[in-house]
Amino acid sequence: MTKLDQYLEAATRDNTRQSYQSAIRHFEIEWGGFLPATADSVARYLADHAETLSINTLRHRLAAIAQWHIEQGFPDPTKAPIVRKALRGIQALHPAQEKRAKPLQLDQLNQVSQWLDAAIAKSHEDGNRRLELRHRRDKALLLLGFWRGFRGDELTRLRIEHVQAVAGEGMTCYFPQTKGDRTYQGTTFKAPALFSLCPVDAYLDWLSASQLAEGPVFRAIDRWGHVSTEPLCIDSLIPVLRSMLTNAGIASAELYSGHSLRRGFATWASSNGWDMKTLMEYVGWRDVQSAMRYVDAADPFANYRRQSQLAKNDKT
């Protein structure tokens, strides 16, 4: 690989590259398409998967096909009118409500954190280092993910050498590249030190217990209690989170995902008077539409229900 090839490869994020490669494999191998593709074949591909794939997934597949043709020097078939018209028709005939992760509320965060504290104490008393390490890691992941509103890929990419944490003061997390950082300037995020549910204390406790000094912050732990040198796989974040919620007694754990921490924080911040500009700057959103997808609108009848319940209690 030449230096030019290395620079060109570095310009594309790893997860984007992998997802595009997967999309191309689906088109070429699983569906049986040919590359370079014609506009008619791409339109037939969309039609064949219109009832099984979401409109967003189909758009992603088109982006991957377009990228392949551009990189190989071929005309982009996805720009053809027949492809655009087919996509509009699919969207019209198969409208789908966007599926959003259930936000983790603050009282639920507290419930899970209390369960983790009890589990840490018990595993320490039993001398079970594997479980103690996992619970300490999970607590740090949970609290930092919530209070910083991090995405799953940001949690897996966070490195110890890019974190500065001081107990009782706060912490900063630096990323050489973030999703919206197209110029590779790097972004620094601050996290608060709190009296309860503190992400700083949880992070420092995890580092102390694991004795890690550099490399990925969050890693897999095997059955013998050995901490991996590689970052925690992003596909394992959802099972880890749902396992925590289930063990802590949170109902319908299957409705939560990695975005639940981000949505939970955004909803909490909005309900506590944060204006949209402040929330966007804190989390790192570049446009209002992205931010609004994570914020649950206030319930106008919530206060009425509370008053009704109080009146009912006074009568009993």
Can you put this structure into words, describing what you see?
The protein has 316 residues and is mainly alpha-helical. The chain folds into two domains: 3-93, Tyrosine recombinase, N-terminal domain (DNA polymerase, domain 1, Orthogonal Bundle), CATH 1.10.150.130; 106-292, Orthogonal Bundle (hpI Integrase, Chain A). 56% of the residues lie in helices and 8% in strands. It has helices spanning 3-10, 14-30, 39-48, 55-72, 81-93, 106-126, 129-148, 152-157, 199-210, 237-247, 259-271, 276-283, 288-292, 302-315; strands at residues 163-166, 170-175, 187-192, 219-221, 227-231. It has a three-stranded antiparallel sheet, covered by helices on one side. A hairpin with a 3-residue loop joins strand 1 (163-166) and strand 2 (170-175). The longest helix is centred in the middle third of the chain and has 21 residues, at 106-126.
- Helix/strand/pairing category: mainly alpha
* Domain count: 2
Beta-strand percentage range: 5-15%
| Head-to-tail CA distance between termini | 78 Å
Number of helices: 14
What global shape is seen?
elongated
User: What strand line-up does the widest sheet have?
Assistant: 1-2-3
